[in-house]
Amino acid sequence: MTNWIPACRLDDIEQEGARRFDHSGRTYALYRSSDDEVFCTDGLCTHEAVHLADGLVMDYEIECPKHSGIFDYRTGEAKRLPACKNLSVYAARVEDGAVLVELPG
């Protein structure tokens, strides 16, 4: 079973930016593309558990602020070492200006 959870307002995320979102003891990262699409991944780097929302967002990628591993935030794919394990991704949508994320349980 999944639930659509309100995470923030679209305006809370800069274009080509990221924002941290915590829910039920887990950390997620929300992303807003240059054309206002929204995406959601696990919020911690799979290499050393650093908060990805503090990293650099560019061209559908997030760069970890600690060791510069890169992930495609649309698919979760690890694209540059030292990150070698993919992120989990979660459905996200905008409804009446609110960002909603589909999370398990």
UniProtKB/TrEMBL annotation:
<dbReference type="InterPro" id="IPR012747">
    <property type="entry name" value="MocE_2FeS"/>
</dbReference>
<keyword id="KW-0479">Metal-binding</keyword>
<keyword id="KW-0408">Iron</keyword>
<dbReference type="Pfam" id="PF00355">
    <property type="entry name" value="Rieske"/>
</dbReference>
<keyword id="KW-0001">2Fe-2S</keyword>
<protein>
    <submittedName>
        <fullName>Rieske 2Fe-2S domain-containing protein</fullName>
    </submittedName>
</protein>
<feature type="domain" description="Rieske">
    <location>
        <begin position="5"/>
        <end position="101"/>
    </location>
</feature>
<dbReference type="InterPro" id="IPR017941">
    <property type="entry name" value="Rieske_2Fe-2S"/>
</dbReference>
<dbReference type="InterPro" id="IPR036922">
    <property type="entry name" value="Rieske_2Fe-2S_sf"/>
</dbReference>
<keyword id="KW-0411">Iron-sulfur</keyword>
